[in-house]
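Troubleshooting entry. Yesterday's outputs looked truncated, so today I'm pasting the complete records for two proteins to confirm everything comes through intact. If either block looks cut off, that's the bug. Protein one:
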Amino acid sequence: MDTGRGLSIIDVPERLTWAVQVLDPAPGDRVLEIGCGRGVAVALIRDRLVTGTVTGIDRSAKAIDAASRRNSDALATGRAAFHTRALEDADFATGSFDRILAVDVNLFRTRQADRELAALRRWLAPGGLLCLCWEPPDGKRAGEIAAKVEPAVAGHGFATEVRRAATARGAGLVGVLGVAVVPGRLSGEGRPGRS
């Protein structure tokens, strides 16, 4: 079965489908995907957008080239943009995005990512959603990832939530969501997800 955008349902890893469902972009959202690879999640996101835009960054020029080809129609209309750069080298204006997604981007779980999390918080509009997802090779690691990443995200001005799921073959999925807390609101308001 073809999704109409050159993607077969068979070609889409379950972790990406799940991550985009958790991200739940609205039709007018401005979305950033960190580590967009060959643009598969970007294609899933852009299919949900009407007036919104999606930007993908990846440190691999080869991946960005493939993502640009896969999403050429959205690129041509200005609804998608791609940049070859590492997250630590990216610089976007304050409040540029409503939603930010990263799937299997290990820097958030393997080291202190204070500089990167501060940048993501700055790039998100107030009330915007950060969605960091992983499919660890060992399902037991999902809990370890959540235990390490959630407090780091919360420490940067996000109201957090952890979501878990499993793929059809039983692999574990984990997502740490963070809503950019609006100054002056209680931290319990604006929990992840749509109202």
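Protein two, checking that the full record survives here as well:
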Amino acid sequence: MTITVGDTLPSATLVKVTPDGPDQVDTHAFFAGRTVALFAVPGAFTPTCSAKHLPGFVEKREELKAKGVDEIACTSVNDAFVLAAWAKSADADGVTMLADGNGDFAEALGLAMDGSKFGMGKRSQRYTMLVEDGVVKQLHVEAPGEFKVSSAEYLLGEL
């Protein structure tokens, strides 16, 4: 079953890289008590993700925060080191990278996809959600091959 507006995010453990190394992030603790713009990409360093999705959130970071977003986070079925390298190469300061290395979070959300025909295995669908205190307030899932409703610009227009 796919998560919907009004649902509480499932419990999962994601990973982010800190100056001290990998750090486990509990979804319930991470999203508690604040508003987070979460976006998911099929893969770090992939064309649309690198050219449009991540840069859009970097570019619109201050506008999103001015509209009440406390944190911007990106998740992908990649390991934390790949996401850290991608953030560095994209100058994505201000975007928290949350690795879903095994795709467990994507599966729990009902938003996993099979990218096997592209040699990518299990991945996350492309989406953006606005989460307030762990509850999904907005959810925008892209149709396969599209990049419209999951953009930072689209989310900003919905706030």
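Both blocks look complete. Sanity check on protein two: The chain has six helices and nine strands.
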